[in-house]
Amino acid sequence: MLKIYNTLARDKQDFKPIVANTVNMYVCGMTVYDYCHLGHARVMVVFDMVYRWLKASGYDVTYVRNITDIDDKIIKRAAENKESIHTLTQRFIDAMHEDADALGVQRPDHEPRATQYVPQMLEMIAKLESNGLAYQAADGDVNYAVRKFDGYGKLSGKSLEDLRAGERVEVASDKHDPLDFVLWKHAKPDEATEVQWGSKWGKGRPGWHIECSAMGTHLLGQHFDIHGGGADLQFPHHENEIAQSEGAHQCQYVNYWMHNGFVNVDKEKMSKSLGNFFTIREVLKKYDAEVVRFFILRAHYRSPLNYSDTHLDDAKSALTRLYTALKGAGNVDLPVQDGVDWNEPHAQRFKAAMDDDFNTPEAVAVLFDLANEVNRSQSAEAALQLKALAGVLGLLQRDAQEFLQGDAGENGLDDAAINAQIEARLAAKLGKNYSEADRIRKELLAAGIVLEDTPQGTNWRRA
RNA sequence: GGUGCGAUAGCAAAGCGGUUAUGCCCCGGAUUGCAAAUCCGGUUAGCCCAGUUCGACUCUGGGUCGCACCUCCA
C-alpha cells in the first residue's frame, strides 16, 4: 500500500484514489521568462519519479504540469528584450523541454498554458463572485475576499491573525483587506494588447493563483487526487488555489498535497532573488544529465538538497559504480518493459521503499546491494533486474560503455587516439617494457582516461 | 514576532526501540607485472540535558543551533 506524506494532514497517509486504479495529478510548473535552474530541475525530476512509480504500480495516471506564460515578470522581461510575450515564452518553453528531456523527465500528459485557459478562469471568477467570495475593487481589480472563505489557512497552517501579525509593508491598493489576493488584474494603459483579455469586469489579465485552479479543474475535474509543487508554493499559492476551487465548486479540491524540498547552495535556498542559482544547462556542461538526475533522486524529495560540485562528483562516482556492474555483467541489453521480477527480494525491498512516501534513497540503496550481487555472481539475471529496477527511476537505461566513456568534450582525446595509445601500451607490455606501459597509462590518466586491464583486454573510461 | 521543518559518522544520506543501511573518501587483505575495476574485511555516527524503558540514534519533555514560509519564487 502506497503511503504519501500529505501536507494537508502533515502526516503520511494511505493513498486511496478517488476512482479505483486511476490517479489525477497536477503539478505547478514553471513561469517561462528565463532558463530553468536546478530548483526547477528538482520539481520536474521528483514528480517525474512520482509519475513513473504510480504507473509502475498499475495506476492509470493523468499528469498535468502547467506553464505560466502570462505574468508580471514575463511582461517586464519581454519589454526589456523588446520582443513579444509569445516569442519570449515560446523560446523558454522550448529550452525547458530540452532541459527536461536531458534529465530523463517524461512529458506530462498535458502541459496547459495559462493564456489558453483565460475563458475558464473568467468563468471561475464569475462563480466566485456569485458565491460572494470575489468583488471588484475601486481600481478595477477583481479580488478574492479571503475572510469570506472558512477554510483559509488549512494547508499552510496559518491563521488569518498570524498572517496579519507578520504582514509586511504593502503597496497601496484598493483591496478590502490586505490579505485579499487578485483574481483579475485590470489592464494598465501602457500595457500591450497582447496581455489584455476582455471580461465583464473590463480588460485585464488573470492573477497567478486562478490560473492553476482553472487549468487543474478543467483537465482533471473539480476534485482530484494529487497536487504537487515546490514547498515555497504552499503559501500563498496553494492555499489560494484551495480557496478558489473550493469556494467556486463547494467541494473538496485535492486529496493529497505533495511538496518537494529546495535545492540549497551553502545551506540557503537556491533562488532567482538571491542570485545563487545554477541553470540546468549550465550544470549540464560539466556533469552528465543522468548524474544530475541521480543526485536528485538519491535524496528524499522532502529533504533539503545541498548543491555543490563535490556532491555532484560524489554522485558521479556512485553512478559509475552501478554502470560498472552492468558492464561487468556483459552490459545486458533487453527491453525495460516487463523487466522487473517483483517477486525477487531486492524488488520487494525496492517496492516497499517506494511505497513509503517515495523513499528513493532507500530504493537506491537496494540498487547498490543488487550491484554488489551482480559483481559477485556475474549473473545476467541479477544485472537485468538491476537495470529494470533502476529503469523505474529513469536511471541506468543507457549503454554502460557509452556512459562510462562519455563525450570527448572540447579538448579531450578522441576514441581513435585513446585506442592507439592502448595499442602502444599493449605492445610495450608484451615486450615487458613496463615503464613505457606505465608511462602511457599515466599520460592517459592525466588526460582523464582511466585504463582497466582485464583478461579480455584493456578497457577505458573517462574519469 | 507568528508558523513549520530539521540536527546521524570525514562528506552525502536512509531505516529502525535491542540485530551490517547505502554511496563517496580512508585503512588492511585478495586479485594485478604494477595499477584500475571487483571481492573480502576494517576505522569514523546519532547537537545538549533530563525522562520513559530491561534496553533509545529511534519515544516524551526542555534547551541550543540551522533552514524555510509569513512578499514573486520550484
Task: Spell out the blueprint of helices and strands.
Blueprint: E1 3-6, E2 11-14, E3 22-27, H1 38-56, E4 60-65, H2 72-81, H3 85-102, H4 118-130, E5 134-136, E6 142-144, H5 160-165, E7 181-186, E8 204-206, H6 208-220, E9 224-230, H7 234-249, E10 254-260, E11 263-265, E12 268-269, H8 280-286, H9 289-297, E13 305-306, H10 309-328, H11 345-355, H12 360-377, H13 380-392, H14 400-405, H15 415-430, H16 434-446, E14 449-454, E15 457-462
Parallel strand pairs: 3-4, 3-9, 9-10, 11-13
Antiparallel strand pairs: 1-2, 5-6, 6-7, 7-8, 11-12, 14-15
The structure holds one RNA strand of 74 nucleotides.
Description of the molecule:
- The protein is α/β, with parallel strands linked by helices.
- Helices cover 45% and strands 15% of the residues.
- The protein has helices spanning 38-56, 72-81, 85-102, 118-130, 160-165, 208-220, 234-249, 280-286, 289-297, 309-328, 345-355, 360-377, 380-392, 400-405, 415-430, 434-446, and strands at 3-6, 11-14, 22-27, 60-65, 134-136, 142-144, 181-186, 204-206, 224-230, 254-260, 263-265, 268-269, 305-306, 449-454, 457-462.
- A hairpin with a 5-residue loop joins strand 5 (134-136) and strand 6 (142-144).
- Helix 10 packs parallel to helix 12 (360-377).
- The mean pLDDT is 93.
- The protein binds one RNA strand of 74 nucleotides through helix 1, helix 5, helix 7, strand 12 and helix 10.
In short:
With 463 residues, the protein is an alpha/beta fold.
Overall number of structural domains? 2
- The computed structural class is alpha/beta
- Rg over CA atoms, rounded to whole Å, is 26 Å
Low-confidence stretches: none
Q: Please report the number of helical segments.
A: 16
What strand order characterises the main sheet?
4-3-9-10
Shape: elongated
Q: Write out the CATH superfamily name of the largest domain.
A: HUPs
Residues in helices, as a percent range: 40-55%
The CATH topology of the largest domain is Rossmann fold
